[in-house]
Amino acid sequence: MAGWLPAAIAAATGGGVVLCHSVFFAPRGLRINRREVVLPRLPQAFDGYQILHLSDLHLGSFAPGAEQVLIAAGLPADLVVVTGDMVERVRDADACGRLLASTQSRDGIVCIPGNHDNKAVRRAHGSQELWETLRSHGIQTLINGAFAIERGGKRLWIVGVDDPHEGKPDVSAAFASVRRGEAAILLAHSPDIASSLPVGLADLVMTGHCHGGQVRTPWGPIFTRTRRRFPDVLGLQRIDGTLYQMSGGLGSSIPLRFLCPPEATLLRLVAPKATARGEPSLP
Q: Structural domain tally of the chain?
């Protein structure tokens, strides 16, 4: 029996080291992903257009992503998108606005609500202070709406829906102004929006919420925070024929990450003709 003691001590020590790293160090790191993605309907005028994808800052929590935003702010992009869960309380809105305003982008910053943002609004008795404060820092909010970015007479639509867990997403209303046949990128907090998204409506969907599982094994996430079952909740993948970019997030409510560091993603959009010239692409 005594022979098991060294092994038990070694296992306990190793487990303690892993837990310590997962709680105190891993949540403070940052992985920066650079990816190219081909959008079949993307106009040539937008070939090479860069979008910085941030998500799940969770400012006001035990593991906020403030440090990560400051690092990612140095990445030059044409547009910055934030796919929800920015704050825990409305009082954190000003800090959030200042952080996001530090990013560099030609076409500004756009955000959508996450479930934690909607909870913060409810705690404030429905006050719109969160969105008003973000707008005061030059951050555009999209809640079941869309706007177009123009280049050389061509347009790329950015569409945003409310959170499907704690909000009232309306895909039809969000796409109401989008012209048929024009490229559109949908921002949604949770990939569960897939259950109400018609095929072919969006060229790309960018989501957060899942934190990549936050605690992963070499075979995938342990928890997904989704109602629907997905092959994975991190990175680029196709769901029901539509391409999704799922963020691992910058912060979290619980300071625990394993094999899933906080991340920011810089997406470079590629038009079809650029692909024909032999430039790399992702499916």
A: 1
Number of DSSP helices (H) and strands (E) in the chain, helices first: 7, 14
Write down the pTM of the prediction: 0.90
The separation between CA 122 and the C-alpha centre of its own chain, rounded to angstroms, equals: 22
What is the token pair recorded at 11? Answer: 């296992």
User: Quick one: pLDDT at residue 274?
Assistant: 54
Residue 281 lies in a domain: no
Report d(CA 109, CA 149) in Å as an integer: 12
pLDDT of residue 259: 87
Residue with tokens 């909607």, as numbered in its chain: 118
Specify whether the CB–CB gap between 56 and 208 falls below 8 A: yes
Q: In 3-state terms, what secondary structure has residue 139?
A: strand
> Does 183 fall in a domain?
yes
Lowest mean pLDDT among 36-50, 62-76, 213-227: 213-227
Mean pLDDT of 175-204: 96
Give the residue numbers spanning the domain of 104.
4-276
